[in-house]
Amino acid sequence: MNIKHILNSEVDAIAADLNVAAEGIYLEEEFEGRKALLKKNSIGYLVKLTNPNFSAFSTTAKEAITGMRNELLTPRRTRG
Question: What is the pTM of this model?
Answer without folding.
Answer: 0.87
